[in-house]
Amino acid sequence: MPIPEFTDPRQVVIYDAVNSYEPGTQPDFYLGVAEKVSAETVVDLGCGTGIITLEFASRGYRMIGVDPSPVMLEVAQQKPGADSVRWVQGGAGELGTPGADLAIMSGHVAQFILNDAEWLEALAGVKAALRPGGYLAFESRDPRAQEWERWTGRKRIIPETLFGRIESWTEVTTVEGDVVYAVGHRRLLQSNEELVSPFALRFRSEELLRQTLTSSGFSVEDVFGDWDRRPSGPGKPELIVIARRS
């Protein structure tokens, strides 16, 4: 089912404001990975509006930005520096074999892939897109932290968007096994109009992530629990995985 936050033009144009990154988190971490592995060509799978894609491109990396939403890609392609990026609409299966040195999945993209077969298909597409020995890096929230229990009722104000000030919050509706169903709310304070976006996230365990990566032809080199590279474990919010194509 399409997620309005990624497909509704009104929600996509405010996506960057609602989903801005804190300093020292995802962009800085993945740039550090790219530098460490001496990457030249990088795939950004689930690139969205190109926030991280274009940051990489500005540093001289050859970028391939991939996303299933044409609306998100349209916004990305209008940004400064977009002409230097190869933009691909679709999923990992549309990448082909560019021989990339590194593939990243930021923004917890991995969690939006709910189905086991689709997850394995995505990993197969990434493997095909990487050169032998190339790297995959992504993050998924650690289910042991049960972060979703703190989402409902936590509101924030985004001060500057195309529609003025916005009140944003998330409402968790159901938890079924390791899948959390929720609704994102964006209230436009000038008009009091509310935009909603139902979504679901898969909270895979570290064991399951390792198992599926290994069976897909990757060797897991590191799993961090937060952006400061502390080890994963109980009480840590993330599972930040660095794997290598075997």
| Total helical segments | 8
Our estimate of the beta-strand percent is 25-35%
Total beta-strand segments: 11
| Largest beta-sheet characterization | 7 strands, mixed
Percent helix range: 25-40%
Order of H and E elements:
HHHHEHEHEEHEEEEEHEE
> How are strands sequenced across the largest beta sheet?
3-2-1-4-5-11-10
Instruction: Report Rg.
Output: 18 Å
Distance between the amino and carboxyl termini = 34 Å
**What average pLDDT do the residues reach?**
96
Secondary-structure topology with pairs:
Elements: H1 4-7, H2 9-12, H3 15-18, H4 26-36, E1 41-45, H5 51-58, E2 62-67, H6 70-77, E3 86-89, E4 100-105, H7 116-129, E5 130-141, E6 156-158, E7 166-176, E8 179-188, E9 193-202, H8 206-215, E10 218-224, E11 238-245
Parallel strand pairs: 1-2, 1-4, 2-3, 4-5
Antiparallel strand pairs: 5-11, 6-7, 7-8, 8-9, 10-11
Characteristic terms for this protein:
8 helices, seven-stranded mixed sheet, four-stranded antiparallel sheet, alpha/beta, 246 residues
Structure, described:
With 246 residues, this protein is an alpha/beta fold. Helix content is 26%, strand content 33%. The protein is built from 8 helices and 11 strands. It has helices at residues 4-7, 9-12, 15-18, 26-36, 51-58, 70-77, 116-129, 206-215, and strands spanning 41-45, 62-67, 86-89, 100-105, 130-141, 156-158, 166-176, 179-188, 193-202, 218-224, 238-245. It has a 7-stranded mixed β-sheet, sandwiched between helices. Strand 6 and strand 7 form a beta hairpin. It is globular, with a radius of gyration of 18 Å. It starts with a helix and ends with a strand. The model has no long low-confidence stretch (mean pLDDT 96).
